[in-house]
Amino acid sequence: MRLKRLPLTAILLVVLFLLFSCSTDSPLSSNNQPPTPKIQKSVKIDGSQTYTGTLETGALYKIWMPDRWNGELVVFAHGYVSPTEPVAIPEDQLTLSDGTYIPDMVTDMGYAFATTSYRENGLAVQEGIVDLEKLVGQFKSMFTNPTYTYLVGGSEGGLITIKSVEMKHLYSGGLALCGPIGDFTKQVDYVGDFRVLFDYFFPNILPGEPMHIPQELMDDWETVYVPKILQALQTYPDRVRELIICAKAAVDPNDPETFAQTILGVLWYNVFATNDLVARVGGNPYDNTDKTYHGSADDAYLNKNVRRIKADPEAVRKLREMYDTTGKLNVPVITMHTVADPIVPAWHERLYREKAFSQSPRGYYNNLFVLRYGHCNFTSDEVLDAFTKLVIKVKATKTVSIPAPLARAR
């Protein structure tokens, strides 16, 4: 797929960041030598060459090198993939909602593009951080040091992007899209609350417990349980509205279909991410023992009868250690979110902004909002605009002295 004709504003932005160009290397933060190239296949396509192989960690990688390379590299951190799926490059995540193929969009502008499967699926945030670092090392061993290396990620990949630029001095800048970057404990609580509320309003549809998902629910999700859920939503529309209100979940009020999309979407993450999360943190990190829910026809009855679950304190501690962000940025970062994201709520942006403004140099962080429903529901123009802003910010900081981190008054 070739990049569609860009609007005038996007062209002007591209011209601007080219004017800021200067040369700098981004050294690997690891003392390990780059792995020996393990190229399995090289394919020539119109305008670029693709290389596929396996990193030393076992993660698969794919690199697109344009015929006329501008010397800069875009690294893509993909989002969540169910542990039930085989490890592979998630090609479906490389296509935007308007049909634009991201590698084509990037290489058409002269950038190299690289991504990895990570060594495993699931909430592999720590593994993803390391595998992306190895991917950059692989790129350098095959070609040369890029003058700038930009890390871009969506959803779980957005979290990986933020944690990578907080922890590593490897990247020139980061673009995090629709990621759970503000508070991962609150993200777990959001999904957990949704499941216990669903079970209250629609009892006896989903088997098992909210934090212990039986295999049959995963195996028969599409064929048995999705139809059951949809039938229940049609039968009890009043309960649908109460569920959405009590869970504080996003929908498009002008599109009734988004109610079912939100419910199925959040429940999918409960079904296919919960067991993996519990295994990684060594216990249940979700707690609603002190939670008061509002928005039902009878809140007193709801709060008396909804299922209550107590967290394992050690699992909560490990969850925060593994998945929470700090706000301490080493390089410029831009984040972007749809205002009505039903999976990763947009309030993550506010929470991360509070961290970054108090912990990072002024000017290092900026966040953008898109007035739309959906998770990671961006157009190519919106992604290109955000990326262009990042490039301008990165190259501007190379010529401007950035003061030491100062706490911002709130």
Description:
The structure is a single chain. The chain is an alpha/beta fold. The protein folds into two domains: 8-182 and 326-397, Alpha/Beta hydrolase fold, catalytic domain (Rossmann fold, 3-Layer(aba) Sandwich), CATH 3.40.50; 184-319, no CATH class. The protein is 42% helix and 15% strand. The chain is built from 13 helices and nine strands. The protein has helices at residues 8-19, 102-107, 125-142, 156-167, 184-201, 215-219, 221-235, 237-247, 257-281, 299-305, 313-323, 347-359, 380-397, and strands at 39-45, 48-54, 60-66, 72-77, 112-118, 148-154, 173-177, 333-340, 365-373. It has a nine-stranded mixed beta sheet with strand order 1-2-3-5-4-6-7-8-9, sandwiched between helices. Strand 4 (72-77), helix 2 (102-107) and strand 5 (112-118) form a beta-alpha-beta unit. Helix 1 (8-19) runs parallel beside helix 13, helix 3 (125-142) crosses helix 4 (156-167) and helix 7 (221-235) packs across helix 9 (257-281). It is globular and about 65 Å long.
Identify the overall geometry.
globular
Average pLDDT figure: 89
Strand content: 15-25%
Order of helices and strands: HEEEEHEHEHEHHHHHHHEHEH
Q: State the major sheet.
A: 9 strands, mixed
Q: How are the strands of the biggest sheet laid out side by side?
A: 1-2-3-5-4-6-7-8-9
* Cα-based radius of gyration, to the nearest Å: 22 Å
Blueprint of the fold:
Layout: H1 8-19, E1 39-45, E2 48-54, E3 60-66, E4 72-77, H2 102-107, E5 112-118, H3 125-142, E6 148-154, H4 156-167, E7 173-177, H5 184-201, H6 215-219, H7 221-235, H8 237-247, H9 257-281, H10 299-305, H11 313-323, E8 333-340, H12 347-359, E9 365-373, H13 380-397
Parallel strand pairs: 4-5, 4-6, 6-7, 7-8, 8-9
Antiparallel strand pairs: 1-2, 2-3, 3-5
